[in-house]
Design goal:
mainly alpha, Amino acid/polyamine transporter I, 73% helix, globular
Length: 480
């Protein structure tokens, strides 16, 4: 394995806007879409679902516009998801954006592997819900198989990801068409307001926000890969193309399901619940088709997220926020050290699957909660640029327009924090806080001051919340 030092910049192979868009779609269309009928059926009816997807679509559109604007206004910032936080709010904020985003992706990859094993379990006995010893062993083998593939070259793996993205859309498209043909207006009408659960419409919509956020994770994929884009404009185009495509898929899967089964049956459907919906229309082969779709989809998403997550460690290491060892890349430009660190972490976290209850639900919620801070900081940086006028020169109309967009993205991100709930905010702090040891090592390696006074205060507050979270969870006051 040939490596370079942190001062040498390996040649990076450029990819087209369609390949960038495929990375975005590949990141977002993972396991989450196959859980949508039951997730929404357990929370709300048609009206609540329409409101939820409208909020999620508009909120994510605002974030997409933010990433598009920042890519054009600050072309000097590569791997934007952390670089925007660093440029706007300092080194410690940038580190936490990178650390939290990386940690969320590790958890997400464990979710993908666990969900894949659960789906393979429909054909292979002994895998259970993806949480058996055999399932963990097979998942571990998969982790290192993907590792070998990616080490052979980022471009090669990216092209494979594009092919997989197309392949996994096929069963989802078949589901939408078949279920739409079987659509029953009376059933849809009975599901309009949902079952009488005692929850207000606002509470029903709030209960769906985390799953809508989970399925949209990856919208920033083109921004993370900005150094691979042929043109800066391709970053924004790929993001918007990916968002539009996936929103249409997610909303369609959710809404057509209300037209074939009562809400209570959707809520009770076993995962992947898309399989139960299709089986009710065409028989047993429907669930088999969806199981196969899950396997292709989540393994494809795993590939996309592993590519992305290695970048998230590699680029901060190049800018002195992570230890310099993580900045090593091979002759093909693959960040091998960051890739090894990522896959070792995924391997270790797979063991958690053996001991937690309802592993898939736990992993989904934790993954989403960890991602909220990087999104919030990126949107806040866009607000800061618009308020201060940096990069805008005399373009007053555009500045005001982008200030509104960025402000809406901030509001949406804060709403997601509220929707996550106190328990997962505290759990997120528990995971964020220990990152300071890695940050301290990186700063000292380069002879830099560790904290400014404001950053020290932020670190103390973060650790206080983490300690509070440990106490509340350990005593059972807060459950996760």
């Amino acid at each position: 394995m040939t490596t370079t030092s942190t001062t040498a910049h390996p040649a990076v192979q450029k990819v087209s806007v369609l390949t960038l868009a495929a990375m975005v779609v590949g990141s977002m269309v993972g396991g989450g879409i196959f859980t949508l009928p039951a997730q929404f059926g357990g929370a709300t009816g048609v009206l609540g679902a329409l409101i939820a997807w409208t909020i999620a679509g508009l909120g994510m559109l605002m974030l997409a516009f933010v990433f598009q604007s920042l890519a054009l206004r600050r072309p000097d910032l590569d791997n934007g998801i952390y670089a925007y936080a660093q440029a706007g709010f300092g080194n410690y904020a940038g580190f936490n954006a990178a650390w939290g985003y990386w940690a969320s992706n590790v958890v997400g990859n464990v979710f993908f592997m666990t969900f894949a094993m659960a789906s393979i379990g429909a054909f292979v006995p002994g895998l259970g819900k993806g949480d058996s010893v055999l399932a963990v062993l097979l998942a571990s083998a998969g982790v290192w198989l993907f590792h070998v593939l990616i080490v052979r070259g980022v471009r090669e793996a990216a092209v494979i990801n594009r092919i997989v993205t197309v392949a996994k859309i096929v069963p989802i498209g078949m589901f939408i068409i078949i279920v739409a043909v079987a659509f029953d207006a009376d059933t849809f009408g009975q599901n309009l307001l949902g079952d009488a659960t005692g929850s207000s419409l606002f509470e029903q919509v709030t209960d769906t926000m985390l799953v809508t956020t989970f399925v949209f994770l990856g919208i920033e994929g083109a921004s993370v890969y900005s150094r691979m884009a042929r043109r800066r404009e391709d970053i924004g185009r790929a993001t918007l193309l990916g968002l539009g495509s996936t929103l249409a898929l997610f909303a369609s899967v959710t809404l057509v399901s209300y037209g074939v089964l009562p809400q209570r049956d959707l809520a009770a459907a076993a995962e992947p619940s898309m399989g139960a919906v299709l089986e009710s229309v065409v028989g047993g082969w429907g669930s088999t088709l969806i199981d196969l779709g899950v396997i292709v989809s989540v393994l494809g998403a795993y590939l996309a997220w592993t590519l992305l997550n290695a970048e998230v460690l590699y680029m901060p290491a190049r800018t002195e926020l992570m230890p310099r060892v993580l900045a090593r890349a091979n002759r093909d430009g693959t960040p091998v050290a960051a890739l090894i660190a990522t896959n070792i972490s995924v391997q270790a976290f797979l063991l958690v699957v053996l001991v937690v209850d309802d592993a898939l639900d736990f992993l989904l919620t934790l993954d989403t909660a960890l991602t909220l801070l990087p999104y919030l900081l990126a949107a806040a940086f866009a607000v800061k640029l618009a308020v201060t006028g940096q990069t805008y020169e005399v373009d007053g109309d555009r500045r005001r327009r982008e200030l509104v967009v960025a402000s809406l993205a901030v509001v949406y991100s804060l709403f997601l924090v509220y929707a996550a709930g106190v328990e997962y905010v505290l759990l997120g702090c528990i995971i964020y806080a220990p990152g300071v040891f890695l940050y301290r090592r990186a700063r000292r390696e380069h002879g830099e001051r560790v904290f400014t006074p404001a950053e020290l205060v932020a670190c103390v507050v973060l650790w206080a919340l983490a300690c509070l979270g440990v106490v509340l969870i350990a005593t059972g006051v807060v459950s996760v």
